[in-house]
Write a structure and sequence with these properties.
Helix content is 53%, strand content 0%. By secondary structure, it is mainly alpha-helical.
Length: 282
């Protein structure tokens, strides 16, 4: 009995090594077509999606309870980033995405109609960690779970959102932006044209130009962690940084909210720097 089991073990070992050698030789030959245009066999596509879905379900079990996701300020912040970082591949209300994505493998799903298959925790895990072999990146600033939750809030809003609502919340009005131009078009998605608080982003209006310039440069080189600000700041030229800082620094007449103690931005101001050092007087 023992000899038979030993022979069986040897046979299985030979088969495993033979299979591994065959796989290596097949890969070495170059016969496998890695072109995205060749697609996958149906069974391969099913297996990959099966594995991905179950992996996300298991890995997301450690994600904590989500915050309230119906906060419109939270949704707006998430949509501002979604417009620049996600919509080109995943589409948006009234926009099906770039034709380039049709040739990707796998093709990025059109999110307004596919969000419902995931839980909040699963969406959080996907946004934070990305998906291997799918072109889906992980979040730039892994320490910023607060930013990832804003993206989940934004994603949850997509299925019922009209094109006009999306335009208003994610892009806003492109008028009246002076020399700041294209750079401000990106900044205003989250901060607005006036740079006032919205409950989830710091106040820009009236801060010193030098501080705003320093902050943008710090985000650009990841000295300050943000998956939202980092990618935006990294694409700004020195001229754009200077113009943007000047634009918001001059907004001295923008009123503070009636109850500033409840806003995230004022909490950050008190915690990290003295207001008198960074805000214009008057």
């Amino acid at each position: 009995m023992g000899v038979g089991l030993k022979r069986l073990g040897v046979l299985l070992g030979i088969l495993v090594m033979g299979g591994a050698a065959g796989a290596f030789l097949f890969a070495w030959s170059g016969l496998y077509n890695v072109a995205a245009t060749s697609g996958h066999w149906p069974v391969t596509e099913w297996f990959l999606h099966f594995g991905m879905r179950n992996s996300v379900k298991t890995q997301s079990m450690s994600v904590g309870k989500p915050p309230p996701l119906d906060d419109i300020a939270m949704v707006r912040l998430g949509l501002g980033h979604y417009q620049g970082g996600c919509a080109p591949c995943h589409g948006a209300p009234g926009y099906k995405g770039s034709p380039i994505t049709d040739k990707m493998l796998p093709r990025p799903p059109w999110l307004p109609e596919s969000i419902s298959v995931w839980t909040d925790e699963q969406l959080f895990w996907i946004v934070k960690h990305g998906i291997k072999y799918a072109g889906m990146p992980g979040w730039v600033a892994q320490s910023r779970d607060d930013e990832v939750w804003t993206m989940v809030a934004a994603l949850r809003s997509l299925p019922d959102m009209t094109r006009e609502e999306y335009q208003r919340l994610a892009i806003g009005d492109a008028g009246g932006r002076g020399s700041a131009g294209e750079g401000l078009t990106v900044c205003a998605r989250c901060h607005g044209d006036d740079g006032a608080e919205n409950g989830h982003v710091p106040r820009l209006a009236g801060q010193r130009r030098e501080y705003l310039e320093h902050a943008l440069r710090s985000y650009a080189i990841s000295e300050r962690a943000s998956g939202i600000m980092g990618p935006v700041a990294a694409e700004l030229s020195e001229r754009e940084i200077s113009d943007l800082a000047a634009f918001y620094a001059e907004k001295r007449d923008v009123p503070f909210p009636d109850n500033p103690s409840n806003t995230v931005s004022n909490v950050l101001c008190r915690k990290h720097f003295e207001p008198s050092a960074y805000f214009h007087a008057g």
